[in-house]
Amino acid sequence: MKEFIYRVEENEDIETIAKKFLLNKDEVLQSNKIEKEKVQEGARLWLKLPEGSKYIVKPFDTLNSISKKFLVDVEDIKENNKIENVFVGEIIFIPN
């Protein structure tokens, strides 16, 4: 797991930061011991990124084809992204 400190940029909140790094917003709140989603610009957040990579779903991709491409189990992709299907243009996390 990669851990680092992230500096909040203008107009960001916990939800946009979580989406940017493919994280669960509740986990970001918990790991930083904060209760509200609004954070001030310049604030520093502790983020924990799982090992793996981001992938942009392309036309004709399926969970099955993506899992074969990256040699990862379909269930691992589904569980890490909390999804049942993929959609073109969607960014998903591929675990190592």
Low-pLDDT regions: none
* Measured distance between first and last alpha carbons: 10 Å
Summarize the amount of helix as a percent range: 25-40%
Shape: elongated
- Helix/strand-derived category reads alpha+beta
Percent of residues in beta strands? 15-25%
Query: What is the number of helical segments per DSSP (H or I, 4+ residues)?
Result: 4
Strand tally: 4
Q: Main sheet?
A: 2 strands, antiparallel
**What is the N-to-C order of secondary-structure elements (H for helix, E for strand)?**
EHHEEHHE
Q: What is the strand arrangement across the widest sheet?
A: 1-2
Arithmetic mean pLDDT:
93
Q: How large is the radius of gyration?
A: 15 Å
Question: What's this model, at a glance?
Answer:
The protein is an alpha+beta fold and 96 residues long.
Structural features:
two-stranded antiparallel ribbon; alpha+beta; 4 strands; elongated; 96 residues
Structure notes:
It is a single chain. This protein has 96 residues and is an alpha+beta fold. The chain contains 4 helices and 4 strands. It has helices at 14-20, 25-31, 63-70, 74-81; strands at residues 2-7, 44-49, 52-56, 91-95. Strands 1-2 form a two-stranded antiparallel sheet. The protein is elongated, with a radius of gyration of 15 Å. It starts with a strand and ends with a strand.
Topology of this structure?
Layout: E1 2-7, H1 14-20, H2 25-31, E2 44-49, E3 52-56, H3 63-70, H4 74-81, E4 91-95
Antiparallel strand pairs: 1-2, 3-4
